[in-house]
Amino acid sequence: MDFNVKKLASDAGVFFTRAVQFTEEKLGQAEKTELDAHLENLIARGDCTKNWTEKIFRQTEVLLQPNPSARIEEFFYEKLDRKIPSRTTNGELLGQYMLDAAKDFGPGTPYGSTLITVGEYQKRLGGAEREFLQTSAISFLTPLRNFLEGDWRTISKERRLLENRRLDLDVCKARLKKAKLAEAKAALWSEEVDKAEHELRVAQTEFDRQAEVTRLLLEGISSTHVNHLRCLHEFVEAQAAYYAQCHKLMQELQKDLSRIPNAFVINPSTSGMSVCSPHSVTSLPGASSPSRSLVSTNTLEPETLKIEEVKPPATGTRKAKVLYDYHAADTSELSLFSDELITVYTMPGMDPDWLIGERGNEKGKVPVTYLELLS
Hints:
Elements: H1 5-26, H2 37-64, H3 68-79, H4 90-105, H5 110-185, H6 190-219, H7 221-259, H8 268-271, E1 281-283, E2 292-296, E3 305-309, E4 318-322, E5 341-345, E6 354-359, E7 362-367, E8 371-373
Antiparallel strand pairs: 1-2, 2-3, 4-5, 4-8, 5-6, 6-7
Helix pairs in contact: 1-5, 2-5, 2-6, 4-5, 5-6, 5-7
Protein name: Endophilin-B2
Keywords: Coiled coil, SH3 domain
Domain SH3: 315-375
């Protein structure tokens, strides 16, 4: 094994003198050469840029890939310079599960056909998410990573070198000071003073040159900010395009679902239950009690009729003024119009946020928050 013992000893000596100088500075026993104010400001600005860029980079990674295991896997692929394998998004996986479930439930059933429709849209949403992730990684994450792993590492290396040059300069200043004190006692030490002055001039030159290199690199942070600003605009544009595409797909999905026949109606032939429409209720001729009504049943025999008992109100009826327009969500609810007066009452077991409202021959549930109850 070939190594230079003298060089090794020299490097060890330099390291030791730097360590002694650094320790004495911390203890206040040695003077320290201060950097000029402009360079100090550049260093502080560079540290601020590095710290916030690192935080933004890490949090953007979490936003784009919440799964920590997946992020670790991608990290190792990048370090090994291997292509990251394509990963199925959660939306695509959910869509596939819905399509598989529809096959088992029967694509001809209301539930199965709806699962197929929603599943296909979920896969399209997952594809849009995949495209957004790829675009964001290229346009935003990659420039931030390049700065942290490239430019900033170079700046950090030159800053460490500048600190070493400063320590060497202060060591030379201390030697010259000691040599001059010794010269005052004996003229024989004049050679030591000349040697110390020469070393000081060399150290000062190297320090000034390294300070200039470091300054130029730190001034390049301004260009980094401009580049990151452009990347930030691209990231926002990618987000806007992604969310706009998702909104468009969801609107299309809602329209497609509205065209599917009502899947909430229970099939009497399979359930054995009678399902009635609110519009099929008529007064029973000759009925002595107003609480009895005639209900047309949707069974295999449409003409079959049955008598259904309607429970009377649990409390007395009251008048209520409608404060806002309300559009009924389904046939069990009653649409409301602002400033109209309706009759309301409650039924046993009802949600306290709802009442039964009546307007002429129309009746249905109404939300309490839309009403002003009158005494």
